[in-house]
Design a protein that fits this description.
The complex is a heterodimer of chains A (120) and B (116). Chain A contains no helices and eleven strands. With 120 residues, chain A is mainly beta. The relative contact order of chain B is 0.32.
């Protein structure tokens, strides 16, 4: 199956600093990637849809200036949490579907292992 | 709007007994539905998916789910629980985007506990 990686797997930072999280599709190209946030013992909430070569689409209530998304290549999307605060501490997960033109399916997504962010 | 409701936050079973995890959906069109499993410190794994083909869907590890339109349900079952089945299970519905891709809406999750 397709593999999606995330880096780093965990990060601890001080309040007010920025943190960048990478999401890579290792063996396929992904024109679209998704970013989710999962608070402890809660469900996954979609934050934004990352589109290669264009602006990301953010879900209602997600601050686009705080969570910067860059999808600069067909295998890499980055999420930058700017001026992080303790309430941003969470588990961030990305996913990507394989384009149907390349044998994938619009409705099947492959998930990364997640990045645990702790803001002190 | 597309949504799913998982009726139980926790389900406890004994090893070897049947598993039933309940999920009801709300959709304005024929939905695509999924069950994902999340083991501690591991990534999400797709168990099975329904995309308007057969209403009884078989997945990995002996799990299956039945799509019942009349009841707007998509319950997950397994005949005999194994200790390794202990995990968090998410019922998921997809929402079509203009690009053709689909974003996922997750239920609140059901934690399955399996006792010896």
């Amino acid at each position: 199956g397709a593999v999606v990686s995330q880096h780093p797997s965990w990060v601890i930072c001080k309040s007010g600093t920025s943190v960048k999280i990478e999401c890579r599709s290792l063996d396929f190209q992904a024109t679209t990637m998704f970013w989710y946030r999962q608070f402890p013992k809660q469900s996954l909430m979609l934050m934004a849809t990352s589109n290669e070569g264009s602006k990301a689409t953010y879900e209602q209530g997600v601050e686009k200036d705080k969570f910067l998304i860059n999808h600069a290549s067909l295998t890499l999307s980055t999420l930058t949490v700017t001026s992080a605060h303790p309430e941003d501490s969470s588990f961030y997960i990305c996913s990507a579907p394989i384009n149907p033109q390349r044998g994938g399916s619009y409705n099947e997504q492959f998930f990364g292992p997640g990045t645990r962010l702790t803001v002190l | 709007a597309q949504s799913v409701t998982q009726l139980d936050s926790h389900v406890s079973v004994s090893e070897g007994t049947p598993v039933l995890l309940r999920c009801n959906y709300s959709s304005s069109y024929s939905p695509s539905l999924f069950w994902y499993v999340q083991h501690p410190n591991k990534g999400l794994q797709l168990l099975l998916k329904y995309t308007s083909a057969a209403t009884l869907v078989k997945g990995i590890n002996g799990f299956e789910a039945e799509f019942k339109k009349s009841e707007t349900s998509f319950h997950l079952t397994k005949p005999s629980a194994h200790m390794s089945d202990a995990a968090e299970y998410f019922c998921v519905v997809s929402v079509r985007l203009n690009t053709g891709f689909q974003k996922l809406v997750f239920g609140t999750g059901t934690r399955l506990l399996v006792s010896p």
